[in-house]
Amino acid sequence: MLKEFLRPYIPKPTIWKETSIGHLTCFFETEIPDLAETDIAIIGINDGRNSHGNESCKLAPDTIRDEFYKLVRQNTRLRLSDLGNIAAGDTFEDSLAALKIVTETLLKENIIPIILGGTIELSYGQYMAYEKICKNLEYICVSADFDLKNETYLRKICTYQPNYLFNINVLGYQTYLVEDDSLNVIHKLFFEANRLGPLKKDMTDTEPMIRNADMLTFNMAAIKQADAPGQANGNPNGFSGEEACQIAWYAGVADKIKTFGIYELNPDYDEYCQSAKLASQMAWYFVDGYYNRKNDNPVMHQEFLKYRCTLGEGQPEAVFYKSKLSDRWWMEIPYPDNYGEHSVLVPCSYNDYLIASKGEMPERFWRGFQKINM
Fold first, then answer.
1. Alpha carbon distance 332, 318 (integer Å)
2. pLDDT band for position 342 (50/70/90)?
3. Are residues 362 and 252 part of one domain?
C-alpha cells in the first residue's frame, strides 16, 4: 500500500564517504525496504501550500537528504530506511490524508518516521496518524509563533474529533509574534507555552518538557535566521543551530516520541545549503538520541532514588524520583481522592526538586496538578 503514495529519492553515493550514513541506509527504488529490518524511516512530503510566502519549502526534503547522507555514522546498529517522498495531492487535504496513512502504517510497524516537509501545516496530518494508537497524546511544537485564533494546524489539532490530545507545549515562542488571544486560549486549556528567552538561559530544562511527548514538530523559523537563512519568514532572534540540535537529541532520546517532523525550510533562500546542513544535523542528532534511549521509568523499574518534600500548609506532598541509570527526575502529582488512581508521574528537573525542598511549589508541579484536577 505504501508504494501508492511514495516516489523514490535518488541518492548520490558518489559524494559519500565510506563511513557515511548513506552506506547503511536502505533506499526505496522499485520496492519498499524490509520494514521488519527498519527502526527509523525517512519520508518527505513535497507540499508547500498554506505556507504563506514560503511555498518553495516543498523542495526541502531532497536538499536535506543530500546533506544528511553525507554525515558520518556513529552507530553500526543503524537500521534506517528512506521511503522517498509523498507528492503533493490535488488538494491540500489529499496531502494530509496521504501523510496520515503513510505515518500511521509505519507507527503500526513500530517504526519511527522522520518527516521532512513541506509546510508546517502538514503537522495536522502527522497528528492524525496517532488516532488509533494513542489515547493521551503529548505534542511538542517548536515554533517562534503560534495561532489558535484562525484555522491553522494548531487549532485543527485542538478541535480534532475524536479528541485524544492531552497536552501541547510550544517551545521557543517570541512574545511580539503571538497575539494575546492565542496565549489566553493555550493557558485556559492548561497547555504550555514557553518563551524563547527563559529556555535559552538553560536549555537542559527543555529535556523534561520533551521526555513525555509522543510527537514533535520543528518549524525552522524558530531558529534565528543567521543560523538558518533558508526561510522566507525568518527572524533575527531564535534558537541557535547548536540549541536546535540539542532539542533534536532530547527528542530522539525521549522514550515515547514516535514521530519527528522538520518543516518550513526553503531552499530558494538557503545560501550555501546552510539550513539544509543544519536540518540534516538535527536529523542526525535525533537518530543518535534514539539509539541512546534508556527506557527508564519509575513505573517500569526499581533503580530509582525516592525523595519526599513537604510543601506549604494545605498543599499536597511532593514526591520525587531520580533514575540511577540516567540521573533524570520525575515527580508524583496526586489525583483527587475520588479518582481510582492515586497519582501521575511527570518528568521534571533537578531544579524542581530544589524548589520543592525549600517548601515551595514548583511551577511544573502546579501546572500538572491543575491539569489533572480540572
1. 7
2. low
3. no
If one compares 197 and 336, the residue with the highest pLDDT of the two is 197
The vertex-196 CA angle with 141 and 148, nearest 5°, equals 45
333 within domain boundaries: yes
143 and 177 in a single domain? The answer is yes
Q: What are 96's three cell numbers?
A: 494530509
- Per the CB < 8 A criterion, the answer to whether 289 and 304 are in contact is no
pLDDT in tens, 167-180: 999 999 999 999 99
Band (pLDDT 50/70/90 cuts) for residue 300 is low
Angle at 110 between CA 112 and CA 303, to 5 degrees: 90
24 part of a folded domain: yes
pLDDT tens-digit readout, 328-341:
999 988 776 544 45
Can you tell me whether residue 200 is helix, strand or coil? helix
The C-alpha R_g of the chain, in whole angstroms, comes to 21
Closest CA to 103 of 158, 118, 148, 191: 118
Q: Into how many domains does the chain fold?
A: 2
CATH of the domain at 84: 3.40.800.10
Residues 341 and 308 in one domain: yes
CA distance 372 to 374: 6
Do 58 and 202 fall within a single domain?
A: yes
| Residue 299, in any domain of the structure | no
Nearest Cα to Cα of residue 44 among 71, 15, 68: 68
* 144-159: average pLDDT: 95
Cα torsion for 154, 160, 164, 167, to the nearest 10°?
20
Same domain, residue pair 239 and 308 = no
Boundaries of domain holding 347 = 304-372
Shared domain for 354 and 225, answered yes or no, is no
Tens of pLDDT, residue by residue over 222-281, are 999 999 999 998 999 999 999 999 999 999 999 999 999 999 999 999 999 999 999 999
**217: CB partners within 8 A, 6+ apart:** 120, 123, 126, 139, 140, 141, 142, 143, 261, 263
Q: The C-alpha cell of 187 is what?
A: 493557558
